[in-house]
Amino acid sequence: xxxxxxxxxxxxxxxxxxxxxxxxxxxxxxxxxxxxxxxxxxxxxxxxxxxxxxxxxxxxxxxxxxxxxxxxxxxxxxxxxxxxxxxxxxxxxxxxxxxxxxxxxxxxxxxxxxxxxxxxxxxxxxxxxxxxxxxxxxxxxxxxxxxxxxxxxxxxxxxxxxxxxxxxxxxxxxxxxxxxxxxxxxxxxxxxxxxxxxxxxxxxxxxxxxxxxxxxxxxxxxxxxxxxxxxxxxxxxxxxxxxxxxxxxxxxxxxxxxxxxxxxxxxxxxxxxxxxxxxxxxxxxxxxxxxxxxxxxxxxxxxxxxxxxxxxxxxxxxxxxxxxxxxxxxxxxxxxxxxxxxxxxxxxxxxxxxxxxxxxxxxxxxxxxxxxxxxxxxxxxxxxxxxxxxxxxxxxxxxxxxxxxxxxxxxxxxxxxxxxxxxxxxxxxxxxxxxxxxx
Length: 439
What we know:
By secondary structure, the protein is an alpha/beta fold. It has one domain (11-406): Aldolase class I (TIM Barrel, Alpha-Beta Barrel), CATH 3.20.20. 37% of the residues lie in helices and 11% in strands. It is built from 16 helices and eleven strands. An eight-stranded parallel β-barrel has the order 3-4-6-7-8-9-10-11, surrounded by six helices. A hairpin with a 2-residue loop joins β1 and β2 (43-45). The radius of gyration is 20 Å and the shape is globular. 53% of the residues are buried.
């Protein structure tokens, strides 16, 4: 069945389409699983709803939270979500994906602490809860643009990614530079703890540096070729972060289990076909579990190259080659497989936002079938920051407030400050119009 925009008016219509496509997609009307608490490490999440890391590109000139950053996280704190995954925060200046990406430093750690303290106060006042707040620590790798122009630090040449912009050999990062990065993750963890975060995510997804290394089959040296070499820096960064973390501080990861690229250019892909082969992702997640990681956040795809894989949409930069429900089902299938491999590890699912007001039924289905432990909403939180409040209080989401999967937030994120152009039009429509006018 070809690509179709979202058109479902009820759960029954969604089930009928799922069945017509022959998809396995857990859906249930009983939303009570979403309200259950969950123990993660030494902490308890008061419900099963999570806000995924969505970068606003609106830090100030000191890489600290700017005015719009504060506005966004105050709204997230008022949502009632149990877990707020703070956006990509660079570990070193050259690792930033844009000049206004957040970065923890000795000079700005107090500004982050004020924001975290405010978030906790808002959540307690409005919902009587203390949300878990995790910061995503990133190295942007081939997508680094610290001064606003490309300055790639790539793991290797990749003919698929390089098709639009060929990389000079000087852009391929040397082993000696990679050797120094675990200490930078450790430094960022210490700052994150001082800022009041409950945990830190060693980001390895969406084509950024640690993610790209996971598929570096053609790279020579200590960080390429074998599975042991390709996972070396990622695991070294996790271990360094754990060593730097005080008791009770969670070290976790948002991990790409499938890049959506054929072998040898993508992680989690079969050598015989472009379909997923989860043998290596499962082995990696089991290793993380053995290291004591209590929580993993699963995603797939690359928003720069194949956004239909990780963010099924109605409108995008190209016509998606599949029905969006096929993409949603793929994310759920892969997440469920990894959860089955590490039943003792808490797993956050992705891909919920596309289903709009019907997404709570899939979220509840994922929890009820044991396919995930928490359910994450990304672009939905941009559009509808109080989605969790409405789900918990009303048992439903308001269709007039949901994300419509139009992709405009992603367009903004590539060039300027990001947010929802449709549902938060007072702030972001003028920014979007100015971006379009400027070409």
